[in-house]
Design goal:
With 210 residues, the chain is of the alpha+beta class. The protein has one domain (7-204): Glutathione S-transferase Yfyf (Class Pi), Chain A, domain 2 (Up-down Bundle), CATH 1.20.1050.130. The chain is built from 9 helices and 4 strands, in the order E-H-E-H-E-E-H-H-H-H-H-H-H. The protein has helices at residues 15-27, 46-49, 73-84, 92-109, 116-119, 138-148, 161-171, 174-180, 195-204; strands at 7-11, 31-35, 59-62, 68-71. Strands 2-1-3-4 form a 4-stranded mixed sheet, covered by helices on one side. Strand 1, helix 1 and strand 2 (31-35) form a beta-alpha-beta unit. Helix 1 crosses helix 6 (138-148) and helix 4 (92-109) packs parallel to helix 6. The chain is globular, with a radius of gyration of 17 Å. The relative contact order is 0.15. It comes from Apatococcus fuscideae. It holds the Pfam family GST_N. Residues 4-88 form the GST N-terminal domain. Residues 54-191 form the GST C-terminal domain. InterPro entries: Glutathione-S-Trfase_C-like, Glutathione-S-Trfase_C_sf, Glutathione_S-Trfase, Glutathione_S-Trfase_N, GST_C, Thioredoxin-like_sf.
């Protein structure tokens, strides 16, 4: 990241924010980070709503393209993946599969975290390394922060070895791990998908999730 960057990313430490920062790190993009304090309501301030009228993070400004704004996390991921020609397949059939899983995350897993337990029974194939196709894609990046944060919703991934292996494969990618630490170090990494550990973390923060 630098002071005269190609992009400005407006974000906060949430799964929707992390999935975009993961992609930007995986792409090796030059971007300026602008944290948005959602607990203080900064996303509803006039300056931010000029970038995203829906008043939600993340949002992106592409300075290289004439200060084009892009909002909604899935739209940002699609925009960047297509623009830079990575993590989005070229074949129509594989594009459809990737977009279907990306939209599943946007419309299913994200809004209703309770579906996470169902999510990892989705694939008829056993032992598949990545969600949509044979390669890591924006479908994995969009879903990963939510599954990693499942303990926050009180969900345990115990007894789901294929899911645990997928999480480890994602975490093993240096750029993905860096993306999780935007805009601050990611506490979800240390929860190990353990709801009790999440309860302890929030108790130490004096925050109730019940």
């Amino acid at each position: 990241m630098s002071s005269s960057s190609t992009y400005t990313l407006y974000t906060a430490g949430t799964p929707n924010g992390w999935k975009v920062s993961i992609l930007m790190e995986e792409l090796g993009l030059d971007y300026k980070l602008q944290p948005v304090n959602i607990f203080k309501g900064e996303q509803k301030e006039d300056w931010f709503m000029k970038i995203n009228p829906n008043a939600r993070i993340p949002a992106l400004v592409d300075h290289e393209a004439g200060n084009v704004r892009v909002f909604e996390s899935g739209a940002i991921m699609w925009y960047l993946a297509v623009k830079h020609g990575k993590f989005f397949p070229k074949e129509a059939r594989e594009q459809a599969e990737t977009m279907s899983w990306l939209m599943f995350q946007m419309g299913g897993l994200g809004p209703m975290q309770g579906q996470a337990s169902h999510f990892l029974r989705f694939a008829p194939e056993k032992g598949k390394d990545w969600i949509a196709n044979d390669d890591y894609s924006i479908a994995d990046m969009a879903t990963f922060p939510w599954v990693l944060s499942s303990a926050v919703a009180g969900l345990s991934l115990e007894g789901k070895p294929n899911l645990q292996k997928w999480i480890e494969r994602c975490l093993a990618r240096p750029a993905t791990s860096r993306g999780l630490d935007v805009p601050e170090p990611n506490k979800a990494k240390g929860l190990k998908n353990d709801p009790a550990a999440a309860d302890k973390m929030f108790a130490e923060m004096n925050v109730s999730i019940k």
